[in-house]
Amino acid sequence: MNLTGGIVLFAVIWFMVFFIVLPIRFQSQDEAGHVVPGTPRGAPHEANIGRKAKITTAVAVVIWAVVAGIILSGVIGIEDLDWFGRLNPR
User: Fold this and answer.
1) Residue 8: φ, ψ to 5°
2) Tens digits of per-residue pLDDT, 16-38?
3) How far is it, in rounded angstroms, from Cα 67 to Cα 6?
4) Mean pLDDT of the residues in the chain
5) What is the distance between the alpha carbons of residues 28 and 50, in angstroms, rounded to a whole number?
6) What is the model's pLDDT at position 45?
7) pTM of the model
8) CA distances from 15 to 2, 21, 36, 39, 50 (A)
């Protein structure tokens, strides 16, 4: 895995974790009892995007380190993922 591959892997993991973290502790404006005029009732009362981005980054770094370690150690390689035998034509 080169530098670009590591960056792409981290970005993919970060966004996957971010979409998992976003709905955690979500409270809509309707549930909070304070709907701002011009917004839908299901809009977030307090988004806390900065806090969720920090949590996402911490979790993504740990997951990325594990996945990158597995890839760099050679425990799992591209040959292990070649289920249809397309990499080594006979």
Assistant:
1) -65, -45
2) 999 999 999 888 888 888 888 99
3) 10
4) 90
5) 18
6) 87
7) 0.79
8) 20, 10, 29, 26, 14
